[in-house]
Amino acid sequence: MLEPITLTIVLVFFIIIFLIGVLDRKRVTIDDYFVNSRKTKPWVLVATTASSFLGVGALISNAGVAYSGGGWATLLLVGSFVLYFFIFARFFAPRIKEFGDRTKAYTLPDFLEARYDGRTRLAGTLVVLTVYGFFLALQILGIAVFVSSVGGIDPRFATLLGGLIVVAYTAIGGMRADIRTDIFQFAVMLMLFFVFLPLLLIKSGGVGALRSLPPSFLFGGEFAPWYVYVFGFFTIGATNLVSADLWQRAYAGDSARNVKRAMLVSSIIILLFLVAGTLFGLIGKAVLPPVGENMVVPELLRHYLSPALFGVVLAGFFAAIMSTADTVLLIMSMTLVHDVYQKTFKKELSAERALRVSRMVTAVLGILAVVLALTVFSVVHILIDAVSFSAALLPAIIFGFYGKHASPRAAFWSIIAGFIAVIIFLFISPVEAFIPGIAASFLAYFLVRFFERRNAVPAV
Length: 460
Fold this sequence. Notes:
The chain is mostly helical. The protein contains 19 helices and no strands.
């Protein structure tokens, strides 16, 4: 049963988030709704980028991988995401911003159409909707994980409450509301890092407590074969390059230079939180009775914090979850309205009509996600599924920016091949599905380019 002070702190947090999210709702334009009018300042961009990136995947799922047998080897996967986040910040984010300003793009599939063709955009849209469908279920499940662990509140009620608050302020305010709430949520998340992690290290015996764990666990052998970690370090973080929410943040910045700076700062903050998530899983394995991969973080909270601090840190975890959930929800809404309804079905909408339709779609998607969340269980495997499908977009994005000659046919078939490979291997070996996904997408791209060049008619 939650202590009254814990419950009060969490409820106050929800109320503040809702109030911040619905401010100025009558003055939101379609550019505000999708990309915050492309005028987001650097320090705001740092807050919204870091808080939206650090959701259930970065905290609960990361801890779950370490707890499930990933051990210290989990840091190789974490290191991959940080490495490629830095690459994204340095080499891709400024170009994305320049492209967005030049073409008034809103989504990642907008780039695929501009660089290749409409068919490639449609294939990319399928991948984005699949990936973010998994991510949305992951965030809603994260709320359910916490409430079912701490007790005192019916999990269905708490999931409904948290989910509908996210849906309400995102549907009303769009990107502007998303960014405003992210700033507050980012401040709460910093308290999470600077309060909970030191207390956990002190009260649990710190890294010394890990001496009781067997070497097979510490070196990751109980979760996946060694080659998964090695290949994962060099490849899995590359999915950051095709992360639709990072593209959205790049579009929303006020200049290419500031977008680059903000993303570089965000990469440092993200590194700290990802390492913290790994430590949560390792320490939980050492000091807790068996609790399951989903429950290790909330159980650590409950065991090592006073009721007041529990409320503050619990609000911090809700902040991390909700700041990602609103971003994911907004991206799915933009993709359906902008890339499917308007572009695929050629439906012309006025700015006002597009705003109304976007709000309606956001609300419907959010409600469906809340309903779906109660049927999903493993935060670890949902995260792996989402990341694996992202890999299908890598060749099209990388060669779209840095290839000398755009090949619509190669880009299209690389997306399709990667997508199909992931579907097949999710039924064979889900943890390793990203490997054939990446391999198939790049192989398809190079094969199509090879035959295109071979069959090209020489110039006379």
